[in-house]
Structure formats: structure tokens, C-alpha cells
């Protein structure tokens, strides 16, 4: 299907807007305030986890990427790091660094890929109206910041699921020790308790199902790596990062599922690389009941690629089985949304969906747009038609 065909057949969204941008964040109220004798700014306020609060409003758990305004000085590139309750700057000689990606810099001469970040991320709970479109309150007093060496380079990309009467939030914690998945729990979705590391190095985009299956917690995971074995010739799949499944008796101890899950399709450039998006929710789409999973597919282009949102419906009792899907994107990057803040853009062609809540005739989907801002889209249930 060509781009023109996609535009012709795409279901229009009644509501699709940016609700939080970098201009809305007050760093003087953030966890880094007063720690660093250098100016910082908001590189991005994006990739929000989302859930319904007990009062009916929605909560967006916004990733705030706070960066140095001038990271290069004294012939070095500087990065922010948490260190025993304070924040410090590390200096890396310019000659060792590749700074072509605005989000990170690579260090040469280490024998394997080593990177450092141009920002440190922390999480800001933002309360919005029941439809996700109007701001209600910024909860700076409940911000989630690094608290140990396992997340000394920041906390990223929250995903929130309500299972029973408890909220569970997975995050990516970044450090030189490991790139791990950490878990937080809450009884009200505002006051969060750190539960520990639940997945070890380079397992990203962990999404806990909003409900148990056969008495167990289920989650989508996405292990990374530098080596993948080839599928046989003629396979409908190709090698690369895929979305896997794991189960747990307590949401703390996870065992990988034997069955494969969502895999990149051969011959489909727009899903050459895939990963999890929103926590699966049990619902009915296109007349079929199952776990609705929104995920991202990446089409190779220049340095970062084009990120789009796709969907799959999973069997309600055997969630490794995909019972409906569509190879056309559900949500695409929208340059028109970021036009008013285009002077702050450092990436384009990226939408990264991270939260979903069901409404009467539509789903409210929260996404990061261009690694810069929070986007809320009302996706009609009629948009979910299997290919």
C-alpha cells in the first residue's frame, strides 16, 4: 500500500493533539534543580505511561529528558549522572565521541558498542481530564527520580497497568551496570513504591497485561542483542528484535513463555524492527474479544528510522496467539502537530505509543511524538479492521 493509499483509507481521528510539550515543564521544581552549576533544558517531555485515576481523571507519567544546554566545553562532552543522592557531570574527551545522534554519543575504542546519553530522564506524573485532552495538575512532589546506581543515567518510558486493585508500572532504568526493567507499584496510581529489578540487561518495553490469564500475571517483553539467527528461506518472518511473552506468579519473578509471540514480517520494510507499545487490555474489536496490543514498527531511514504504531489482537486464553492484526499503521507521525514547536525539533518521523484507556466508542491512546512531546489520540473502535 502506498502512502497515498494509506491516507485515503485512514480513519480520521476526532481528537489528535499534543497535550504536553517541553515548554510546559518547570525544571525549577524538578529533582535536578540546584544540583548542577550548568544550565539545563527539557530535551523532550514524551513517552507517557497512562492510566485512569480513582477520581476518573487520567494520569500521564511523562518522561522528562533533562539535558545540558551546552554539553561541550573544555574539549569534552559532558553527561549528567546520579551519584549517591546528588547529580554530577562526567566529561568524555571529544576525540573519543561520535555525537551524530542528538539523543546519545558513542564512545570509540572500547572493543564493543558503548554509549552515553545527552540527557538524564526522570518521570513526572501529570493529571489530565477524563478524556486526556485538558491539563489538571502537575504532581512535581511525586516525581520519580533515580535512587540507586542501577538507574544512575535515568529512568525512562513508563508503562502502567492496573491488575485487580493495584497499579503496576514498569520502567527502563539506565546505568553502566545494566540496562534493566524496574517495577513500581501503587494503590492509587500517584504514590509509587519501588519493587526492584524484574528483568535484567537490555530487555526493554515490558508491558504487563491489565488482568491475569489462568491466575498468572502476563507480560510482553523485548530482549535486545547484536546477534539473531536466520529464519529458513521462505519464512513469513525475518530475524531481528521481536516481542516475547513471560509469566509470573507475583509480578516480581518472570519466566519466559515457550511460544513465540509477535515477530517482524519478511518483506515488510515498515516493521523491520518492532517492539512493545501499550499494555495489552482485554476488549472487543472488530467483533472479536481478546487482548488488544499496540506496538511499534520501525522502517529504516537515515539514523533513527520511521516509527509507527500497529495493533494486534491476542487470544484471551492463549495470548501468544495473534487472532487479528493489520499490516497498515494505526497511528503515524504527524509533523503538523509539532509545527508550533518546530524550533525545538531534533528528530522527526517518530510516534511511540505508550498508554491506552478504553472509552465508549473509542480508545484514548497516549504517545510520544518525535521524542519531544506527549500526544493524545482518540482512535475510534471502527479503525480496528483486520487486514
From TrEMBL:
<dbReference type="Pfam" id="PF04041">
    <property type="entry name" value="Glyco_hydro_130"/>
</dbReference>
<comment type="similarity">
    <text>Belongs to the glycosyl hydrolase 130 family.</text>
</comment>
<dbReference type="InterPro" id="IPR023296">
    <property type="entry name" value="Glyco_hydro_beta-prop_sf"/>
</dbReference>
<dbReference type="GO" id="GO:0016798">
    <property type="term" value="F:hydrolase activity, acting on glycosyl bonds"/>
</dbReference>
<keyword id="KW-0378">Hydrolase</keyword>
<keyword id="KW-0808">Transferase</keyword>
<dbReference type="InterPro" id="IPR007184">
    <property type="entry name" value="Mannoside_phosphorylase"/>
</dbReference>
<protein>
    <submittedName>
        <fullName>Glycosidase</fullName>
    </submittedName>
</protein>
<keyword id="KW-0328">Glycosyltransferase</keyword>
<keyword id="KW-0326">Glycosidase</keyword>
